[in-house]
Amino acid sequence: MKSARVLYANLSLRVRLTASYIALIVVSMTVLGVGYYVKSSEVILKNASGTYLGLVRSSNQSLDAKFASVEQSAINMHLDENLFELFNTTNLQKKYLDYENDRKITRVLQKYFPTSEDVYSVNLATKDYTFGGNPNFWIPKKDFSASDIYQIGMNSKDRTLWVPTYNLLEKFYASSAVSSTKDQYVFTATRLINLSLVSNNLLRSMDKDAERPILLVNFQESMVSRAFKESLVVKDSYYYVLTKDNEVVSTSNRSGSRPVNQEWINSAIAKKSGTEFVQVDGEKMVVCFDVIATTGWLSAVFIPYDNLLKTMPNMFSYTLYSTVLILVLSIFLASFFSSKITMPLKKLMWGIKQIGEGNFNTRIETYGTSEINLIIHKFNQMNDKIQVLIEENYETHLKEMEAELKALNFQFNPHFLYNTLNIINYLAIENKQTVISNMLVELSEMLEYTAKKSGEVAFSEDVKYLQNYDYIMRQRFEDKFNIEYHIDTALYRYTVPKFFLQPFMENALIHALEDRETGGWIRVSGRIEDKTRVFTIEDNGKGMEPDTLMRVLATIDDPVSMRKSIGIANVNKRIKLIYGSQYGVEIESQGNKGTIITITLPLPSTL
Hints:
Layout: H1 2-10, H2 13-77, H3 81-87, H4 92-96, H5 99-112, E1 119-125, E2 130-131, H6 148-154, E3 161-167, H7 168-172, E4 185-192, E5 196-199, E6 202-205, E7 214-220, H8 222-227, E8 238-242, E9 248-251, H9 262-271, E10 273-280, E11 283-291, E12 298-304, H10 305-311, H11 315-356, H12 371-407, H13 414-430, H14 434-450, E13 456-458, H15 459-476, E14 481-487, E15 495-497, H16 502-512, E16 520-529, E17 532-539, H17 546-556, H18 559-564, H19 568-579, E18 584-590, E19 594-602
Parallel strand pairs: 14-16
Antiparallel strand pairs: 1-2, 1-7, 3-4, 4-7, 5-6, 8-9, 8-12, 10-11, 11-12, 13-15, 16-17, 17-19, 18-19
Helix pairs in contact: 2-11, 11-12, 12-19, 13-14, 14-15
């Protein structure tokens, strides 16, 4: 189990997605297929059972029509004038037991019961003689009154009674040597015929002492077989016609075993008609049953369940092939859609690999607005941002280096110059040249500051550098200008870009105050406003006219101007690269009214 999980975890996303789709589809289709097969089999089986039940009912209706005609003919015989004259006597044996009367009665019986392949014989039986023709002479002419059939007939005064199938030869000629191949199976309809005569619109009954004959209509058992022949279309199916006492009237099953018990027969007769499942010798059978109204007998066709399924459309094969076809199609679609899902991810992985190798120009094409395509779009944006940040960081470093190089031409060897200036300073001290010595000290400190690394420095260091520059320039332009410092002491806790004030003081001294002989001033101030550090360099120089100011402002973001100078454009660009585009340099100036340089830097959240 663990190895299977490890194997699954090592599979690619596409394979796992496809496998998951296939597993889901297989489970769903299996459940649907089994459910469809079971349900459709039940429906088809129900329809098939209904079809065979219809055949059983049709067979019963055919038999019932024939049996009902016997009942009707028996009723009609009650009013037969010829029979009334023959049997309305108290001495029937003495007067009529002869061949001629037998022929007369036979003709009367043929009138009511025409010759048919279903009817074996029709007779009228009395205590001493049996009337009616019989080509096989199996119905005894005499001594018939001793049979149980005669006794049944004598008790059937109100309706016809039906005697289930029996063997004529065995019943009446058991002692004879007739071959069993001539056995004749019949079932009998019998009824007491109480004759009457209608005369002058009056109904005359037989004399009280006159013997009433017994009607015997013997049907061949093959009549039932023919009726149910069309119902036995399923292999190994068979029929039974049973009395309410579970006596067999007719059957196509010659095994001899009864398929149902008395309890089932009672239940089926109570239901009159229907279809059920029963177990016969361990085999599942479908039973279609119906009751013959005239006789009360139960007709039942027993159909093997498995064989019945074989006669229906092959639902198993149909369901199996349909399920397999749908599964194959689903697997193809699962593979197609999983590839559609994973292809953008593959592109994204390729892009990440390219970024890892330093190819920041990599771009991934994307279409649509799906979640994965949105991720790819954001990846491209991130890649662009990374490239911009790299370029800006690299550019910042270059600009800082360039600013330092341009700040002092002799920075190629600052230590050599610093040591040389110290020697000159010693000579000036020996010769008591204090001003020269002080200037050399200030210049050497400037050179030392210049030699330090680029980037951000402590604000106090940059102010010290500015003051060194201030001292030297005041010695150069004696009494020409004055410089004031108004700086919030809290600002000394933070760092600033190197050389971010000196270029503006240099511009003020060289350009703004160049025409003044005396009275010039420069005011350097710094303060904290909300979360911003604000530095200003203000002078009372000649200022700038609007068109000149516009040209100066235009050079702030001009890369060409920035490469040529370490002034405004250079400082402004470095501030924006380090802190963001919302910070930088602003200029306010009017002709003959001076200039104000404002530099804004963010206030760090932590020290």
